[in-house]
Amino acid sequence: MQNSINRLYRDSFFKYVFGNEKYKQNTLDLYNTLNETHYTNPDDVEFITLEDVFFINMKNDVGFMICNEMVLWENQTEDNRNIPYRFFQYAAEEYKKLLVSRNLDPAKNVNLHLLGVVCIMFYSGSRYADGEVLRFSDLVEGKTSIEVNVMVYNIGERIDTLKECASAASYARIISEINRLRKEGTPRDEAVNDVLRSVPKEDVLYTIIHQEYDAVVRMLGYEYTLEDFKQNSYEKGREEGELRKQTVTIIRMLENHETMEKIICYSEADEETIRTIAKENGLTIHE
């Protein structure tokens, strides 16, 4: 059990709920809701392992095959226009595995009978609108014949439409409520615990959550820790970028023999900072 829980800490809550062999019914229900299909056998879902592609910090992707279709889902809270490239890589790796398993050689003139691929990003941020399509071609400078389109499902905007899939609706409510508490200033761990403890017993995810409560708390806690880290790193990077830009401006103005007054005006730096930069770079200040 301990090894199982440790592994779960590296998975996201999304993957735990929708990419778990124990809970295939959740996967099938969500697939049916998204595609307006009516499959009833959870064993129709054959999970594929998306290891070794983009496993950075936490697994938040789900891949499976069903009815001659390869379905790739990824859960995201951050803004990333490169998602189509990530899916392109996922699909390419899975195609390689399928060809090997079927003993097919793409160098030969044979029909490979490749599966169709459906790419969906479940998103809980604010930049991308529900229904927006992220395209591989938008990442290419020039023309390309490669088409990879990723449909965006904004979880916050889909709560009502996800009602047909109880597990997805519950997941969306949990994430939305944690996000709401966080925006109101509730500390991360307190927000996660408050929301999980408030899930009613009749909720479809209640048993899943409470079977390994500590693991779920850690999963969600780690997700939000990563989110905070990325946001702080972004802010720090932006500040460092602005500082570098200011330094370059000061150096160029010193090289052009601009006056101290003008450098202060344009760079918005104080006199002491300008004198320090001048000294470090062996430049003369023209008063």
The secondary-structure class comes to alpha/beta
**Mean pLDDT across every amino acid position:** 81
Proportion in helices: 40-55%
Q: What distance separates the N and C termini?
A: 72 Å
The radius of gyration over CA amounts to: 25 Å
> Number of helical runs?
10
Largest sheet: 6 strands, mixed
Number of strands: 6
Q: How many independent structural domains?
A: 2
Topology diagram in text:
Blueprint: H1 2-9, H2 13-18, H3 24-35, E1 46-48, E2 61-66, E3 69-76, H4 83-101, E4 116-123, E5 133-135, E6 149-154, H5 166-183, H6 188-197, H7 206-211, H8 213-255, H9 260-267, H10 271-280
Parallel strand pairs: 3-4, 4-6
Antiparallel strand pairs: 1-2, 2-3, 5-6
Helix pairs in contact: 1-8, 5-6, 6-8
Q: How would you describe this structure to a colleague?
A:
This protein is of the alpha/beta class and 287 residues long. It has 10 helices and 6 strands, in the order H-H-H-E-E-E-H-E-E-E-H-H-H-H-H-H. The chain has helices at 2-9, 13-18, 24-35, 83-101, 166-183, 188-197, 206-211, 213-255, 260-267, 271-280, and strands spanning 46-48, 61-66, 69-76, 116-123, 133-135, 149-154. A 6-stranded mixed sheet has the order 1-2-3-4-6-5. Helix 1 (2-9) runs parallel beside helix 8, helix 5 (166-183) runs antiparallel to helix 6 and helix 6 (188-197) runs antiparallel to helix 8. The termini are far apart. Mean pLDDT is 81; it is low at 1-10, 52-58 and 229-237.
